[in-house]
Structures are given as structure tokens and as C-alpha cells.
Design goal:
By secondary structure, this protein is an all-alpha fold. The chain has three domains: 35-104, Serine Threonine Protein Phosphatase 5, Tetratricopeptide repeat; 106-173, Serine Threonine Protein Phosphatase 5, Tetratricopeptide repeat (Alpha Horseshoe), CATH 1.25.40; 174-255, Alpha Horseshoe (Serine Threonine Protein Phosphatase 5, Tetratricopeptide repeat), CATH 1.25.40. The chain is 82% helix and 0% strand. It contains 13 helices and no strands. α3 (73-85) runs parallel beside α5 (107-119). The protein starts with a helix and ends with a helix.
Length: 255
């Protein structure tokens, strides 16, 4: 074969190899993209079913997501939260640890795991994680971690520090229900009934009644000598939550 023909053949072979590599890379990228999209779908389904209270279906979807992406921190975070709802704290802790190892700067994981650690009375580590979650500029919902830090301080009987955290949370989100409820209860316990009433009204601007909230509201209005409001909240408690502990105790409070 002439040199010119050999050079042409070599160029053609190189071109074919490059083309094959490009096709192969594109196929791999498409496969990875499809895998990511598939994992995301099962993750979103799992979270949605969890929100609806359909925990078994949620677990099935999250288990599939985990099989597809065993090193996805978001999947481990969601599974941990699900196991909390199922009352399986050891499994919840295991998945939170895995999620944190995969994404140590993820504020959502820090917040959730910190909250669980405080519930398990590991206050030092819990507060460490919650402090990280509440201080990072990447966290667009810092009030979540601040409120959990307040609840953690309450569990340690540090009420003044707890109140400071709740107040910071409400500066960032004035209608955040858990912080408002916490401040409503703390104000009542401290005998500041007007403040308790104010927090209740703010709570009702953006949230629905719970038996616990109505219970404190009844006692607050009793202390403020507002019989009409006491009767209103009593009726709501009995109608909406007839089987609640608070509804069963209502007579002992009113008589």
C-alpha cells in the first residue's frame, strides 16, 4: 500500500475510534441521567406519600430509590425521617449518619439529625448540628433549625436560651407555627397571659387549631377573665378533638 493510502487509512481508523468513544460517552451520560431522574422520581414519590401519611407506600418508593442510588444523601435523609415516623430510632440514626457522611454540609440533614439527637438527650451533639444548620448562609429556612435548637434548650431546662432561639426563628418567619406554639406555652407558664394570647392570634393567622393549642388558649382566656372566648375555644376543642386528652380534662379546668 502506498504511503498516502496508509495515512488515509490511519486517519479513518482514528476517526472511527474517536466517534465510537463519543457515542459511548454519550450513552453513558444518557444512562446516568436516566438513573438520576429515576431515583429522583422515587424519592419524590416517597416524600409525597410520607406527607400524606401513607408510610408503607412511602417506604416502598424510598427503598427503590436507595437501591438505585445507595450513596444519595437525600435518599438517606428521607428514609431516616420515615423511620422516625415509624418509631424506629436506631434505623433513623443509621440513615442520618450515612446522609451526614455523604453530605456533611447539608443543612437539612444537620437539622433533622440534630433534632433527633436532642430527642435522644444527646444535647451536645444535637446542638452542634443545629447550630451549624441555623448559621449557614446556604440554609434558606434557618427558622427550622432555630426552633429545633429552642426545643433542645427547653429539654435542658434552659428556658431563657430557648426563648431567644424561638424569637430569632420568628424574626425570620413570623408565622412559623412550632415557634409560635412554643412561645404561646412559655408565655402562659410564665404568667404573661397577654403575650400568650398574642402568640395564639399570630398562630391562627397561618395555621389550624390543635388540641394542645386550644388547651392553652382556654386556660389563657380563663386567666384573662374572657368567658366568651373560653366558651368558644371549649366548643372547638370538644367538636374538633372529642377523643383528645385535653377534651377529657376540660370539665376539671372549667369547674
Amino acid at each position: 500500500m502506498r504511503p498516502r493510502g496508509q495515512r488515509l487509512l490511519i486517519k479513518l481508523m482514528i476517526g472511527f475510534v474517536v466517534f465510537a468513544l463519543l457515542v459511548s460517552c454519550a450513552a453513558l451520560k444518557d444512562e446516568e441521567l436516566q438513573k438520576e431522574e429515576s431515583t429522583s422520581i422515587y424519592l419524590q414519590l416517597g416524600v409525597r406519600y410520607m406527607e400524606l401519611g401513607k408510610l408503607q407506600i412511602a417506604k416502598e418508593n424510598l427503598d427503590i430509590a436507595l437501591k438505585k442510588a445507595p450513596d444519595d444523601s437525600s435518599v438517606h435523609n428521607a428514609l431516616a425521617f420515615l423511620y422516625e415516623k415509624l418509631g424506629n430510632e436506631p434505623q433513623a440514626s443509621m440513615h442520618y449518619k450515612k446522609a451526614l457522611a455523604l453530605a456533611p454540609d447539608d443543612w437539612s440533614v444537620q437539622n433533622n439529625f440534630g433534632r433527633l439527637m436532642c430527642q435522644q438527650r444527646d444535647f451536645k451533639q444535637g446542638m452542634r448540628l443545629l447550630s451549624q444548620a441555623s448559621s449557614t448562609p446556604l440554609n434558606e429556612k434557618q427558622w427550622l433549625a432555630l426552633t429545633n435548637a429552642g426545643l433542645c434548650q427547653q429539654a435542658m431546662n434552659n428556658n431563657s436560651q430557648a426563648k431567644a432561639y424561638f424569637e430569632q426563628a420568628l424574626i425570620l418567619n413570623k408565622l412559623y407555627a412550632p415557634a409560635l406554639v412554643a412561645m404561646q406555652k412559655m408565655s402562659f407558664q410564665e404568667g404573661d397571659y397577654l403575650a400568650a394570647q398574642t402568640y395564639l392570634q399570630r398562630y391562627l393567622e397561618g395555621s389550624v387549631y390543635t388540641s394542645s393549642v386550644l388547651w392553652v388558649a382556654i386556660q389563657t382566656e380563663l386567666a384573662l377573665n374572657h368567658p366568651d372566648l373560653v366558651k368558644q375555644y371549649q366548643q372547638l376543642l370538644v367538636e374538633k378533638f372529642p377523643l383528645s386528652t385535653e377534651a377529657k380534662q376540660i370539665e376539671s379546668v372549667l369547674h
